[in-house]
Amino acid sequence: MSETGHAYILVVIQPGKEQEFANEVVSKGLILDSTVEKLDFVHGSFDFIVVLDGTREDMDRRILEIRKIPYVESTETLIPFEMLNWDDSTMKDSVYPLRENNVLAAPSTELELDNDFVSPVVIYSTKGGKTRKVAAEFASELNCPIIEINKNSDPSAINLSSYDLVLIGTGIYQASPNAEMIRFLKNANLDGDKRFALFLTWYRLGQNDKSVFNIISGILDGKGKKLLNQYFECLGDFSKGRPNADDLNAARRWVSKIKRNS
After folding, report:
1. Quick one: pLDDT at residue 34?
2. For 86-121, how does the pLDDT look when each residue is reduced to its tens digit (9 = 90+)?
3. What are the residue ranges in the chain where pLDDT is below 70?
4. Which of 10, 185, 201, 212 could join 46 in a cystine, given CB atoms 3.0 to 4.6 angstroms apart?
5. Residue 138 in contact with residue 123, Cβ under 8 Å?
């Protein structure tokens, strides 16, 4: 029998859609088989905190359903420490950022692909230009197009249909991806046979990379798309000269594994 526990989902909602979100979660059966102990409106960086109670498998499924609600901008999942004793073998493919011995594993530098990609594209969003530097290295190494996603980007005007691999780049802001990238992915036409890979830059490395991975993965999952498990990350701090030449060389080595498969 699966063990039960709690999860805390911090949710950012589209402005003015708080009541609609509450109705979706509570009254439309999106969290059947798991108990919603609380659904509280909060002030700060997040709009709601949803407290779930149930088995890991049930709550994984409910968390993904919450992320698919159209009013949701982003989420972050918090796990109480008592749940860290679960058998690591049960955590495979979980949305929770837990690993063996309760330590977050470092992202792999090996990009494992199960098919060849012949038409990649790099899309990225940035606030200070740090993610742009890595995106440019990827595009140069792959000799592929590069597209910046910003507040003026029209998802309906950006056609990704001819690409079979989309590399998504974003900074990390309060444990979340760039909001402009979130809006783009939620509204873009991602039809076609394509896969997605993620790369990140951030001011201080920590454990929020997995939170960002889960947010992007949840959006893509809602559209029936797959985000590769391996991702690239590096420090983004211009005051320290980062990303520096070593970071950019590492980016080229990482993404060249795609090139050799194409």
Report:
1. 62
2. 444 433 333 333 333 323 333 444 444 444 567 899
3. 1-3, 27-36, 43-44, 80-117, 204-208, 258-262
4. 10
5. no
CA distance 245 to 58: 45
Residue 102, burial from CB neighbour count under 10 angstroms (0-12, 13-18, 19+): exposed
Contact 84, 19 (CB under 8 A): no
* Separation of alpha carbons 6 and 120, rounded Å: 40
Burial code (b: 16+ CB inside 10 Å, e: under 16) for 142-166 equals bebebbbbeeebeeeeeebeebbbb
* CATH architecture of structural domain 120-261: 3-Layer(aba) Sandwich (3.40)
Range list of H helices, the chain? 18-27, 56-68, 130-142, 179-187, 208-222, 245-261
How confident is the model over 9-21, as pLDDT tens digits? 888 888 788 888 8
Measuring CA to CA, how many Å separate 208 from each of 152, 194, 202, 212, 262?
27, 26, 10, 6, 31
* Averaged pLDDT score across all residues of the chain: 77
Where do the domains of the chain lie? 4-86, 120-261
Residue-level pLDDT at 2: 53
Q: Kindly give the pairing relationship between strand 120-124 and strand 165-171.
A: parallel
Angle formed by the axes of helices 208-222 and 56-68, nearest 10°: 70
Q: What is the CA radius of gyration of the chain?
A: 19
Q: What pLDDT does 12 receive? A: 85
| CB 177 within 8 Å of CB 202 | no
